[in-house]
User: Which sequence fits this backbone?
C-alpha cells in the first residue's frame, strides 16, 4: 500500500502543465492575443476541476481507514 501511495505522489508531482480549456474558450482567448488572460482562465479551470477529485479521494481514504480499524 505504501508503494502504491508513493508511486501516485510521484506521478502527481511529476506531471506537466495540464490544459483543460474547451475549444471555444481557447479560440476566443487566442484570437484576442491576451495570453496572460488565457493562462489565468486555464489555471482557474484546472483548480475547479481538481477540487472534486480531492474530495472524493478524502472520502475514499476515510472509508478505508474506518473499515481498516474495525477489522
Assistant:
Amino acid at each position: 500500500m505504501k508503494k502504491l501511495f508513493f508511486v501516485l505522489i510521484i506521478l502527481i508531482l511529476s506531471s506537466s502543465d495540464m490544459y483543460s480549456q474547451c475549444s471555444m474558450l481557447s479560440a476566443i482567448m487566442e484570437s484576442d492575443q491576451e495570453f496572460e488572460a488565457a493562462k489565468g482562465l486555464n489555471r482557474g479551470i484546472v483548480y475547479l476541476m481538481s477540487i472534486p477529485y480531492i474530495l472524493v479521494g478524502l472520502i475514499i481514504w476515510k472509508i478505508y481507514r474506518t473499515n481498516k480499524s474495525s477489522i
Notes: Helices lie at 2-13, 23-31, 35-70.
